[in-house]
Q: What sequence folds into this?
């Protein structure tokens, strides 16, 4: 197995990562479940790092599960931009949730994870493309 094949994320792993990240996001909105994200915050050192991890993991997992890799570069970028918009909307919604609060720092952390996921996605995609074929129309 060569390195390019090792970088392929199995569908089941992406499904598990997506479920785990969504569970952490939902747990932040349900006071009875708040112990789970708080445990991970303590493990990682801060809420900021949890936002980076979820922003990264959820972005890559959803990209894999959606099958977006078969689409053009432009559609893939639009997909990732839509995810960033959803992260922003999620953070804005917290302004109206009683036990939550809006934070620009949290959005910046989620966006940092998103940027890392975007870079990883397009780097691996470019690396896996057959050599010698430049497709500008893709």
A:
């Amino acid at each position: 197995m060569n390195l390019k094949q090792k970088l392929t994320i199995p569908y089941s792993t992406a499904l598990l990562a997506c479920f785990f990240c969504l569970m952490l996001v939902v747990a932040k909105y349900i006071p009875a479940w708040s112990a789970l994200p708080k445990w991970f915050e303590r493990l990682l050192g801060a809420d900021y790092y949890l936002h980076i991890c979820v922003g990264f993991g959820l972005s890559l997992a959803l990209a894999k599960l959606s099958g977006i890799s078969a689409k053009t570069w432009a559609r893939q970028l639009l997909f990732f931009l839509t995810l960033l918009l959803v992260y922003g909307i999620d953070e804005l919604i917290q302004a109206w949730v009683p036990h939550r609060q809006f934070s620009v720092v949290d959005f910046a952390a989620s966006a940092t994870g998103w940027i890392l996921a975007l870079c990883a996605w397009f780097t691996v995609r470019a690396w896996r493309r057959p050599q010698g074929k430049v497709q500008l129309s893709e």
